[in-house]
Structure to design on (268 residues):
């Protein structure tokens, strides 16, 4: 699992790549938590552009970070969720908890305006 | 006539895989199942659903069955009349209350950031789904998914 991180105006942008399963998620969780701490939990954009497979472990990763940010007053949004992942997103109701945007730009704008 | 013979060959196909309960084998399991069903020419959506369901069952065996420790996971696949059957077995701790385990959002391990969605995902992504389990002995998850109509095969 590769990720690409960038801080844009204080907001952490994480671009995920590969397959988001239990094997991939465990090391990723700690890495993202560390970066969130470094950026003072201002906000998190998770981009799924490079993700072609995700199971419930990915849901756990999203909800876990959502909890971290909520408890510290930061905002979290998702973007670039491809068609392969639609069904698991819909089934889990994650759309109702964490906003999803088409592009990284619109996701960043939404966080800044929040 | 030619094709009828071929569908009989397909009906007889099967594959067994056994591997230690290591998380890197989660992708091995779902890729192996995907390769096994290629002969039925499934749609991208069917393939994604099947791979996700397999990943859920195998991950559960590793995380819950063996509590992240050592053990063996067995995967059995068979094709019959355009339907694939996948069985995932472990010899782990087993499930005390299967009805409770199948409830959406029920998890025994919230501290591991599990969200209790795995079995619900399986239920929605395949056509038939059963669990049999004996506490202290292990768990067997059986799923069946129709990938090709019998008309396509005949
Ligand atoms: N192979 C197994 N061995 C022992 N217990 C299991 C097994 N599979 C499932 N369970 C039990 O059933 C519960 C529900 O499983 P399910 O996959 O729906 O959720 P989860 O694994 O806890 O969370 P998620 O799948 O969303 O990460 C588990 O928390 C566990 O208690
Ligand atoms: Mg699970």
């Amino acid at each position: 699992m590769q990720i690409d991180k960038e801080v844009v105006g204080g907001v952490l942008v994480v671009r995920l790549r590969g397959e988001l399963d239990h094997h991939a998620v465990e090391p990723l969780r700690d890495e993202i938590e560390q970066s969130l701490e470094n950026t003072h939990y201002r906000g998190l954009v998770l981009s799924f552009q490079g993700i072609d497979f995700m199971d419930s472990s990915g849901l756990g990763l999203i909800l876990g970070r959502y909890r971290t940010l909520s408890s510290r007053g930061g905002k979290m949004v998702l973007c670039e969720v491809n068609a392969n992942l639609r069904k698991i997103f819909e089934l889990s109701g994650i759309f109702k908890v964490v906003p999803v945007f088409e592009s990284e730009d619109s996701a960043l704008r939404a966080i800044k305006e929040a | 006539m030619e094709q009828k013979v071929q569908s009989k060959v397909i009906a007889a196909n099967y594959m067994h895989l056994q591997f230690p309960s290591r998380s890197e084998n989660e992708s091995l399991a779902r890729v192996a199942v995907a390769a096994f069903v290629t002969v039925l020419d499934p749609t991208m959506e069917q393939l994604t659903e099947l791979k996700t369901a397999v990943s859920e069952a195998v991950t559960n065996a590793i995380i819950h069955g063996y509590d992240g420790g050592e053990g063996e996971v067995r995967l059995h696949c068979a094709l019959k009349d355009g339907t694939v059957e996948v069985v995932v077995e472990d010899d782990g701790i087993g499930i005390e209350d299967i009805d409770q385990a199948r409830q959406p959002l029920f998890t025994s391990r919230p501290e591991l950031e599990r969200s209790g969605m795995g079995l619900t995902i399986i239920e929605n992504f395949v056509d038939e789904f059963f669990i049999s389990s004996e506490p202290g002995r292990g768990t067997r998850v059986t799923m069946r998914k129709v990938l090709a109509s019998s008309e396509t095969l005949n």
